[in-house]
Write a structure and sequence with these properties.
Helices cover 30% and strands 24% of the residues. It is of the alpha+beta class. α12 crosses α13 (400-407), α17 packs across α18 and α19 (671-690) crosses α20. Pfam families: Ald_Xan_dh_C (PF01315), MoCoBD_1 (PF02738), MoCoBD_2 (PF20256).
């Protein structure tokens, strides 16, 4: 952003940013008038369903679609032979076309690699016919031994020759290592804590599953896509590359999307299939994923097995950290898993003073659903570090609060480079930590805990602190566009890329635009998610929408303010520098009696431009593209979570009693939206800590493909979330930072630490997720047996 432009332009006073403005989309959504992909109907529309493998690994000898094609209403059955050769380019902008990636064919070729792997597409006149015809497609499978346990994937390859992809004969997609651990330091440290921490696979579970409607018009060579997506412009670019079409011939329309959480950032294999198939059938093609498909095939997340260590001096100061882990990436991970997994190692030092830190990791294939993005994909670094800090505190007979207090970074230490080179700035993790401790009343809880234990009740307290990069301002993520137009009525429309999936960009962008132009918020509306009319943007990912959209609106608003001011000055007969914009009017500074409404300014520009002075533009529209400067590419947010719980040591049931989040995402555009984002992520993390598990048996069969088996948290499991806010402005426009991922990052270790604190008198430490009642009871029984053995 050009600083000189801002210095010479008088920006209206902020009226709406920072206020709890009601969400503009709520009336539409809460009254059932939203438009989701399944609401889209096109003339002559056909429906697609996938034939999916019942085996985790098998050769596909033959596919016989004769009976299915004979079924009334079936239009086509397409296999890999029909559509895979049509792929021209299938790279994703998240890393670009030149970074080596893992295999990703649209339909399975010769071999299926997980249960649910799509092998054919049945296309019919309606969904019911397509579903019925699935059963008539005869696939000759030859089962093969699967690689179901990722922790044994390398062993399966070397000892038994069981591999997922021929290109990777050791089942390793790749890995990375930082500086090697300083073993001499660990050996000589006063205290060393170490743990083996396993995080299960669990998934985003958006309310709306994945889906597309694709309409191909052969005569003009145009493709229109209605999609449930977080990134409409990237879907458009991907479709153009995939099919070899000019980008201007592809239009993506995203209306309402019922949740994404990372799962809908990049097009997956089924999306590729529908895009390719749409050009082969005589009508628009719709695919809506059912819930079973979503749980089985839309990707896995988390699923890490690792060993972590921390070394401390006599006073409890951290001397060094080390993390060595393996991440399961399934059969067909979304793009570039080797690079994205590196974030776990890079961020492991967290918001603490850590002089030395080493990491080493491998990503391995398995015959399960592929790794996909999910709110803070590097979350294991916080989980493992924060659990280990509590373990270390107990070893040193120190309260976990005191241990963190001795090591957490303060604002006066910024800028601070963590030992892996990550440049922290514009943050004060100690501030959010101390605020959470104060809200909780730490000393009061410890007194209550002692009294409860005397009564035979086990209550516990867990903390978790983290720091995360938001803004994601690298590569194609480092730029965002906005168009602001004052219509002929004086009302204002702001056009942005969109990607709003429940994160209320519709509301926040209206607030920002109203402030940028001095308009009444009732006079501002937004148009998003249609690539035909909105500027390019990378969409909702990487907690980038707040800071990047704010930058784009400010750039465009600065230009449009000058245009509005020039026309108002000509009408009022004063210099442009004397004009102030407020309340949807232009007013002469110091003289409220001299004003002109936005409606009158627009009338002059649209209907009577001849009355404008020579050289005054009648244009009331501005488009700008914001690019993060190098000094503002990362907006570091941070938070501390605090959780209290009671554990029933007979049943293993965990009751969460209080939950506190103190967070710093800079100034809040809308506190309601921020707290909604944090609360939503927190609940997802609570589910991951206690309930959710995308489990497989030894043969690679999914065991949790319905909501009977895949358990989600409800309002009965989650206490009211208490919020504290620390507002340290970031380096970008408005000082805004992202807030989309933090809740999901911080909550699992806070919950696990609370459970471990409650069970500490019994000698129990849970380090394998999820902490189900069965897991807790088994751990209590094992601890009792060990104690009994030691007593003997």
């Amino acid at each position: 952003m050009a600083d000189t432009a801002l210095e010479t332009d008088s920006r209206p006073a902020s009226r709406y940013a920072g206020r709890r403005v009601p969400r503009v989309e709520d009336n539409r959504l809460l009254t059932g008038h939203g438009t989701f992909v399944d609401d889209v109907t096109r003339p002559g529309m056909l429906h697609a369903c996938f034939v999916r493998s019942p085996f985790a690994r098998a050769k596909v000898n033959k596919i016989d679609a004769t009976a299915a094609l004979a079924h009334p209403g079936v239009i086509a059955v397409l296999t890999a032979e029909d559509i895979n050769p049509d792929v021209l380019e299938a790279w994703h902008a998240v890393a670009g076309k030149d970074v080596p990636d893992t295999p990703r064919p649209p339909l399975a070729e010769a071999e299926v690699k997980f249960v649910g792997d799509p092998v054919a597409i049945v296309i019919a006149e309606d969904r019911y016919v397509a579903e019925d015809a699935l059963e008539l497609v005869d696939v000759d499978y030859e089962p093969m031994p699967p690689v179901a346990d990722f922790t044994k994937a390398v062993q399966a390859a070397t000892e038994h020759g069981h591999i997922v992809h021929e290109q990777y004969p050791d089942n390793q997609a790749g890995g990375m290592a930082g500086m090697p651990p300083d073993e001499e330091l660990f050996a000589g440290a006063a205290h060393v804590a170490q743990a083996h921490i396993y995080q299960q696979s669990y998934v985003p579970v958006p309310m709306e599953t994945r889906g597309l409607v694709v309409e191909w018009q052969a005569a003009p060579g145009e493709l229109t896509v209605w999609a449930s997506t977080q990134a409409p412009h990237e879907l458009r670019a991907f479709a153009a590359r995939l099919l070899g079409l000019p980008a201007q011939n592809v239009r993506v329309i995203m209306r309402d999307t019922g949740g994404g959480f990372g799962q809908k950032v990049v097009p997956m294999r089924e999306d590729m299939c529908i895009l390719l198939a749409a050009r082969k059938v005589p009508g628009p093609l719709k695919w809506i994923e059912d819930r079973r498909e979503n749980l089985m095939t839309a990707g896995q997340a988390r699923h890490v097995d690792g060993k972590v260590r921390l070394a401390f001096d006599d006073d409890g100061a951290i001397l060094a950290g080390d993390i060595d882990f393996v991440q399961d990436i399934g059969a067909y991970p979304t793009p570039y898993p080797v690079l994205t997994t590196a974030a776990i190692g890079m961020f492991f030092p967290g918001p603490y003073r850590v002089p030395k830190c080493s990491f080493n990791y491998q990503t391995v294939f398995s015959n399960t659903a592929g790794l996909a993005a999910y709110r803070g994909p590097w979350q294991y670094e916080t989980l493992s570090r924060e659990i280990l800090l509590d373990i270390a505190a107990r070893q040193m007979d120190m309260d976990p609060v005191e241990l963190r207090r001795r090591n957490i970074l303060r604002g006066d230490e910024m800028p601070y480079f963590n030992p892996n080179g990550m440049p922290y700035d514009h943050v004060a993790p100690a501030d959010t930590f101390e605020q959470a401790v104060k809200i909780l009343d730490h000393e009061g809880f410890r007194k209550e805990q002692r009294e409860a234990l005397e009564q035979g009740r086990y209550i516990g307290l867990g903390f978790s602190a983290y720091i995360e990069p938001t803004g994601a301002a690298t590569g194609h993520l480092g730029t965002e566009g906005a168009t602001i137009r004052m219509e002929s009525t004086g009302k204002i429309n702001v056009y942005v890329n969109g990607g709003s999936t429940g994160n209320s960009l519709e509301t926040t962008v209206v607030q920002l635009t109203a402030d940028a132009l001095g308009a009444d918020i009732e006079d501002v509306s937004t148009i998003q998610g249609d690539t035909a009319v909105t500027p390019y943007g990378a969409g909702t990912q990487g907690s980038r929408s707040g800071p990047m959209t704010a930058g784009a609106v400010e750039e465009a608003g600065t230009i449009l303010r000058k245009q509005v001011t020039a026309i108002a000055a000509s009408i009022l007969g004063v210099e442009a520098g004397e004009i102030e914009l407020a309340n949807s009017k232009a007013v002469v500074a110091g003289d409220d009696s001299k004003s002109v409404s936005f409606a009158d300014i627009a009338y002059r520009a649209y209907y009577d431009p001849a009355q404008l002075p020579p050289g005054t533009s009648a244009l009331l529209e501005a488009t700008a593209r914001f690019a993060s400067p190098p000094t503002a590419m990362i907006h570091w947010a941070n938070a501390t979570h605090a959780c209290t719980c009671e554990v029933d040591v007979v049943t293993g049931h965990v009751t969460l009693t209080r939950y506190i989040v103190s967070e710093d995402v800079g100034p809040m555009i809308n506190p309601n939206v921020v707290e909604g984002q944090v609360a939503g992520g927190t609940v997802q993390g609570i589910g991951g800590a206690l309930l959710e598990h995308q489990a497989y048996d030894a043969d690679g069969n999914p065991l949790s493909s319905t909501f009977v088996d895949y358990l989600l948290p409800t309002a009965t499991e989650v206490p009211s979330i208490e919020f504290g806010h620390v507002e340290i402005p970031g380096p970008g426009v408005g000082g805004y930072k992202g807030c989309g991922e933090g809740g999901a990052i911080g909550s699992p270790p806070a919950v696990i630490n609370a459970i471990n604190d409650a069970l500490a008198p019994l000698g129990v430490t849970i380090t394998k997720m999820p902490a189900t009642p069965a897991t807790i009871v088994a751990a209590i029984e094992e601890a009792a047996q060990n104690t009994g053995s030691e007593g003997q």
